[in-house]
What does this fold into?
Amino acid sequence: MIRARDPGRLDRRVSVAPMMDWTDRHCRYLHRLYAPHALLYTEMITAAALVRGDAARLLEHDPAEHPLALQLGGSDPAELAHAAGLGAAAGYAEINLNCGCPSDRVKSGAFGACLMLDPPRVAECVRAMRAAVDRPVTVKCRIGIDARDDYGFFADFAGAVLEAGADALIVHARTAILAGLSPKENREIPPLKHEYVYRLKGERADTPIVLNGGLADPAAARAAIARGLDGVMIGRAAYHRPALLAELERELIDREWAIPDPIEIVERMVGYAHGQARRGVRLHSITRHMHGLLGGRDGARAWRRFLSDMAGRPGAPPETLFSALPILKRAAAA
It folds into this structure.
């Protein structure tokens, strides 16, 4: 039996998409400085890796990252249930099932976007995960896959997973083309069909539904919320210009929130890097996520060059970042 729960306890108005090789714990710590209330997601972690590998290392995160969701990849209900339990025990606020990633690596593992072709299997996975944890279980998907890009296919898939107990649906509003397009092309070439997501919300008003894809500014996010959606999920636009997260925090959540100054961000990251250095983490592992600090502002190129030339050196101490203060101050004055 599916237990009743309150899926609205997490604020879904702003979230950051799970991005392989990008949204690791250092990236998430940085993003949290910009948006105190955004729901952050891990990179996709396969259920098999958690169940059979070093779960403690894979699930490690800083308490400052919360609210934080764990995204799992897999298609075996028992394995996913076990992995979900590990995630819940590690303190994650939500467990998300990946049904949207179009990469060959994911396809060969029988999970990701290809799962949309097997709604009964996804429903079984959702039921197993829900039975294993006491927190929201959600699904991230596309609107279709290959030639199956009609609204009826999307609505049937959504119905199957929601009726199985999924607490929310996060939809990248493009079709996944597994034959012929790379993962990068799949983020750009298939046309956006936001209307599919709005239509689904109209039919399932009580279901939390979050829109992902093609949202690159506060006006677009505000328009999506105005049309009844429960939230927006931002991916690469936020990674390349994290100040966008602060703008969304102010626009959609806290009107009093002030966009952090880049110098303040650097000071906070130096403190964080000191703690990580004591654990053997190289500065570059942290600063590789900071290239967008001046995104869209004067000095952006000089800042990126500094990070590549100075902060990327083996053994560079956290204080290396302070030598870039002139670049940041010029940007602030421009």
In short: Residues 262-277 form the longest helix (16 residues). The chain is about 45% helix and 15% strand. Residues 1-8 have pLDDT under 50 and may be disordered.
